[in-house]
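TICKET #2291
ISSUE: user wants both folds in one file
ATTACHMENT 1:
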Amino acid sequence: MKINPITYRSLTSYKYQLTEDYTVQIEIQPEADITTQYIDLKADGLLTVKKNYAWDGPSGPTVDTNDFMRGSLVHDALYQLMRGQYLDISERDKADRILQKFCKEDGMSTFRAWYVYKGVSLFGKSNAKPKKEEEDKLFTAPEV
């Protein structure tokens, strides 16, 4: 009997995965609609992060709290669009401010939300810069 092998990749940098689409209106309005496998950003600023999108949650010296999760999701999605050159890196400060706004809306203290904003504005640039994408390491099982 012939075995049909599977091909898969190992994910090490993600902690969370959406179980349903998340849609929200944001202040970033690209010139044209952006559509990727996991993220849609319409020209009017309607952002949809799609079911099964994976992200690493809040980054840096912080704790993953409920008042940080929505902001980290949207922020990571926007930075991913910048890295993929779908969204211009000039939108980075708006993305950082959206993170701050969502954290405050979700109950984070004004001081902590400001601290979060300062952290990403000072240290997040390398995460938004377009990168030469390394080819995914793919595995096959069983080996053939």
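ATTACHMENT 2:
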Amino acid sequence: MTYRQILVAADESADGRHAVSAARTLAASNDAQVTILKVLTVPSAGDVPAGRWISTSTAGPGGHHGELEHFRLWLGAEARNGALADAPEVAVAFGIAGIEIGRFAALRKADLVVLGRRDRTPDHRLLLGETADAVVRRSDLPVLFVPPDVKEFRRILVALDGTERAAQVLEVALAASREFGAALSAVTVEPDLDDERSPPANGPMPRGRSVRLRDLLMRLPRGGPGATGVALEVRKGNPIDEVLLAVTALPADLLVIGYRRGGPPKIVGPTDIARNLLYAAPSAVLTVPL
């Protein structure tokens, strides 16, 4: 997997500007095309239906070009070539942001969607807004969430659960390590059984999956002539707590996780592993749709 077409969605906030900067940095190092999108609510006058858009790359269905020019002025240097071969496309769409971002990503055949994340505050522990939550629940593309304090990706941690789905997550993590030029590590969490000598009634010992994961990871190309193997850390206990601890201990700039699409908005149950990790991880997070 390579990132050749990147869509970054931004509002006119500091978090949005940081997301644009991160997307452009990634694109410049991979010769990718960038589209910078802002979504506005449908005007009360009703003269622009949901799904309408305007862009610097095409005339589009027309109308409301003042909003596009305002967004370009706010972007400033980010709307110009800079380190890119071509100036990024700047677009404004109308409708519900959580829907229109996915619609525009499909229209542009994007490989990756980039969004900002809110900074952690004492009164706001979670780091995901309503729009970002809607996008990741609907997206069939990897979505990169970048918090304001992450400037580069040097260390990537991928969380694997030992199921067949882990291969999908690992593939995206490997691609990200190549695209970002970052070191890749892996973590899995086993149940903390009271008596490990007593295997479960149905199936192998939980640690069996960790053995299989380690064997798989040790055979992977790591970059450089003859270099193989990705380190796997095996932890025991609550998967949410242990993965978050692993992120901090590394420390990781980016956490890669599998993420089931769908589900109700803004409800984070105590056993919803992926959603809790996405909301609470101190690093950037790359979600892999499952």
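RESOLUTION: both attachments delivered.
EXTRA DETAIL ON ATTACHMENT 2: DSSP finds eight helices and eleven strands in the chain.
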